[in-house]
Amino acid sequence: MSNMKAPLPQCAAMVRVQNILSGKWKITILWYIAEYEVQRFGELRRRLGDINQGLFPKFDAGLYTDGSTDMVVSRGIGNSIIPFRFNNRPEIVLVELCAE
Question: Which of 12, 33, 58, 99 has its CA 20 to 30 A from that of 51?
């Protein structure tokens, strides 16, 4: 029997995303995503300072799967009055889906 405790339900989504991200910034990025909900690269860069574009090259948009964990990187819903989505920056959003 393992001495490891299961994560608290409110932390389960963070644990899943943690399995997808890697590197020295993983915990810090997850904290900012959880604290501020939506983070664009520019926002993360201003908050972290020493982060560069090379950190997220493979997570630019779309669905990424690692085992039973899925991560969606969104291009947003638009940032102008025109109802089209052109060159929107990727945003990392933490969403936890729970069955009731």
Answer: 12
CB 43 within 8 A of CB 91: no
Helix (H, G, I), strand (E, B) or coil at 19: helix
Question: What CA dihedral angle connects 66, 23, 56 and 97, to 10 degrees?
Answer: 40
- Determine the 3-state secondary structure of 40 from DSSP: strand
Sequence letter at residue 10: Q
Q: What confidence tens digit (pLDDT) does each residue in 71-94 have?
A: 777 666 555 566 555 666 666 666
Q: Which residue has the higher pLDDT, 4 or 93?
A: 93
What are the distances in angstroms from CA 72 to CA 5, 14, 47, 91? 27, 14, 22, 9
SS3 36: helix
Output the CA–CA distances (angstroms, integers) from residue 14 to 9, 31, 50, in the order listed.
Answer: 10, 9, 23
